[in-house]
């Protein structure tokens, strides 16, 4: 028995993998953009994933969604993406707090 990849599920669009970049050197700026734009891009992607899950939930509740597993996958993806976003936010707040506690000498 062979099990196909998740790409075979209709309507599933996986998140794009992050680009692997080398650490920037003094002569070359980072190719991926600044941190602020990366955060905004991540939040926009999270919003899109949640909107997709919400749309599929409405379709499932109204009976117009032919495959209920599409909603289940979208809801799980939205849950995982939300948990990841919260974890990153918590680490950023922790890092900021640690920087604020540093003594300037």
UniProtKB/TrEMBL annotation:
Keywords: Bacterial flagellum, Cell projection, Cilium, Flagellum
Domain of life per record: Bacteria
Subcellular location field: Bacterial flagellum basal body
Keyword Methyltransferase part of the UniProt annotation: no
Similarity remark: Belongs to the FliE family.
Protein name, per record: Flagellar hook-basal body complex protein FliE
Gene that produces this protein: fliE
């Amino acid at each position: 028995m062979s099990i196909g990849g998740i790409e075979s599920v209709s309507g599933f669009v996986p998140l794009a993998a992050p680009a692997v970049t080398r650490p920037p050197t003094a002569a070359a700026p980072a190719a991926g953009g600044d941190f602020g734009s990366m955060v905004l891009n991540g939040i926009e992607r999270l919003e899109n994933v949640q909107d997709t899950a919400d749309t599929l939930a409405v379709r499932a509740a109204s009976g117009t969604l032919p495959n209920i597993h599409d909603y289940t996958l979208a809801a799980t993806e939205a849950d995982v993406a939300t948990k990841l976003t919260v974890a990153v936010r918590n680490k950023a707040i922790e890092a900021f707090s640690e920087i604020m506690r540093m003594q300037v000498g």
